Amino acid sequence: MAVNITERSSLILEGGGMRGIFTIGVLDNFMDRGVRFPYIIGVSAGACNALSYISNQRGRAKFSNIDMLEKYHYIGIKNLIFKGNIMDFDLLFHKLPEEIYPYDYDALARSSERFEVVTTNCITGEACYFEEKNDPKRVIDIVKASSSLPFVCPIAYVDGVPMADGGVANSLPVERALSQGFTEPVIVLTRNKGYRKPDKGSKVPFFMYRKYPKLKDAIRSRNSVYNSQIEEIERMEEEGRAVVIRPERPIEVDRMERDVNKLLALYEEGYSCAAKIKFGKE
Q1: Cα torsion at 246, 247, 253, 255 (round to 10°)?
Q2: Interatomic CA distance for residues 17 and 45, integer angstroms
Q3: N or C: which end of the chain has fewer CB within 10 A?
Q4: Residue among 15, 12, 2 at smallest CA distance from 171
Q5: Burial 59-91 (b: 16+ CB within 10 A, else e)
Q6: How far, in Å, CA of 210 to CA of 216, rounded?
Q7: What is the per-residue pLDDT across 90-140, written as a single tens digit (0 to 9) for each?
Q8: Is 214 exposed, middle or buried (0-12, 13-18, 19+ CB in 10 A)?
Q9: Contact 10/181 with Cβ under 8 angstroms?
């Protein structure tokens, strides 16, 4: 498959927790080949992985998702019990970018690409879209909010506004990209073709998010919204209006996967799937 990148091209990155290691393989392949897009939009893990792509720090996202996981075991019930968060956000969003594997904020600031991150406003239950390249603290606040999964992560704040995982309101922000004038999307999914979420929406315990009834509504309707978005993406793909890169086999990696061998296999699959796409004059 050949793809020409133009001023109307976009790169859309789904979330999915540790399933995002597939996306990391895709992005590492793109970096190896110098493939860039004028507009990138990411959700949750997709937004986190996009940061290292935009700063051109090849291997950084893989390091944080595999090497660091093996060393620090930053996902698990123990974190949830003792820190109120199933992931160690202090490690991931502070020690990692500041000390362990410093993030190149200067490269981000210099980048010519537009980069949007999706979050969910807890008050309105609607998607918010943030662009930030110059304020490192705000960059972290935004990607942290986009990654704050319901039920197992605390509410996050951006500019003092309570936010949750971007996937709650908009898991697949294709329409957002189109609305910004980027009508030639390359979409990276973290589920195989044909995947659908269960028709039954997620239940929200009565004692959770009592201050945010519209967030609860968004959580309940998330599955149906996601499935509608996937159906539209598949139509666009069939009609030649979108290029979709996705795992070729049903995913064996869980959202909170800790099996390094499974993660490595999914990374290699992402790299391989991306290699099948030919860009421009290649």
Answers
A1: 10
A2: 6
A3: N
A4: 15
A5: ebbbbbbbebbeeeebbeeebeeeeebbbbbeb
A6: 8
A7: 999 999 999 999 999 999 999 999 999 999 999 999 999 999 999 999 999
A8: middle
A9: no
